[in-house]
Specification:
Glutamine Phosphoribosylpyrophosphate, subunit 1, domain 1; 2 domains; globular; single chain; alpha+beta
Length: 344
């Protein structure tokens, strides 16, 4: 919330209240149940949910089918109204009270966004720009530096990721991309860190992310340190062409983002929507999780290299992509998720 408010103060044109209003209206109208939401509510998920508020709301969701409406969690409308009228400071004060047993109040009310320079690297006739330390951006820069185009693309990616960190949990979240007629590119990655985050639904109507849980897992990290994320915002601009191809995307997990980037760069601009259906793999330790319709020959190649293969769990991670070529823009949402694209 602090990051959004900071971005609005620095770059925004519309009043803050105008930006929050659609979220308030959605909460009042109710939440449309998507296929990815139902995919996320499985037996494994429900077995680890101990919080009664969240358990009750998820049970309610499972009683309806895709496209139907369920009420927003209790308290969410009041929280959004408070954010709309008073900004994020009051929101963090309320949060510090709700999390008093877990975090010191100053850890929450003192939270500030960090403004760091973007990372840039030339790759395949494009300048790739992404976020700095503490995100997946710095990891992507290392991967691109190690990438060898003389090998099979998938094998080269595996080799590039090898040794960076074999214990990464899969990072889940929402990725949104947009641009305007003035070539202002915005890509935002946010979310709970994992499916349903900490699995706690507060009385204020929002689900807590998994940062507190992760901070305890990281050796030597105290409660005031910022937990690193695999979130990856992406902008790629064709080198040497003023009105050349520009691509805006990202992912909640840098391992997915690297595959999205390669798919975008090697795809004909006229066929960019085909990136939508390219299956992806997910690597952890020596196990590769593969999505449905993954090419059999590549799966066999992974096995021959000594990797164990398993089916990727639902919901599949999704991303949004914007391509601008000269003055023509196209936007689409990854078919793996339940997102929607709009061109105005």
């Amino acid at each position: 919330m602090a990051g959004l408010f900071y971005a609005h103060a620095k770059y925004g044109v519309l009043p803050w209240k105008t930006l929050v209003e659609p979220s308030i209206n959605t909460a009042k109208f109710g939440i449309v149940v998507t296929e990815s939401l139902l995919d996320a509510i499985n037996d494994k998920t429900m077995n680890v949910v101990q919080d009664e508020n969240l358990k009750h709301w998820l049970d309610t969701v499972t009683t309806v089918s895709v496209g139907h409406i369920v009420k927003a969690p209790k308290g969410l409308i009041n929280t959004l109204n408070m954010i709309s009228s008073q900004g994020p400071n009051e929101f963090y004060k309320r949060m510090s009270q709700e999390l008093a047993s877990t975090l010191k109040p100053d850890d929450i009310t003192g939270y500030k966004p960090i403004n760091l320079p973007v990372l840039k690297q030339n790759f395949m006739n494009y300048t790739v720009m992404t976020s700095n330390n503490g995100t997946g951006g710095s990891i992507l820069m290392k991967v691109l530096s190690k990438f060898n185009s003389t090998y099979d693309e998938n094998v080269s990616l595996l080799n590039s990721f090898k040794g960076l960190d074999d214990n990464w949990e899969k990072n889940s979240g929402l990725q949104v991309s947009t641009t305007d007629v003035f070539d202002l590119y915005v890509t935002i990655t946010s979310g709970l860190g994992s499916v349903f985050g900490s699995r706690v639904l507060t009385n204020s109507g929002y689900i807590l992310n998994n940062d507190v849980e992760l901070s305890y897992k990281h050796m030597g990290m105290n409660r005031t340190e910022r937990v690193s994320s695999l979130h990856l915002p992406l902008v790629a601009v064709e080198i040497g062409k003023i009105c050349g191809r520009r691509l805006v995307s990202g992912s909640a997990d840098v391992r997915d983002g690297a595959q999205i980037l390669l798919s975008m760069l090697k795809t004909d601009p006229q066929k960019i929507v085909s990136v939508n259906t390219v299956p992806r793999f997910h690597l952890k330790n020596n196990v590769i999780e593969i999505e449905n319709h993954f090419p059999k020959q590549i799966e066999e190649l992974f096995v021959s290299l000594g990797y164990n293969i398993s089916d990727a769990s639902l919901p599949y991670p999704t991303s949004n992509i914007v391509q601008k070529l000269e003055d023509k823009s196209i936007a689409f949402s990854d078919s793996r998720g339940s997102g929607q694209s709009y061109t105005i």
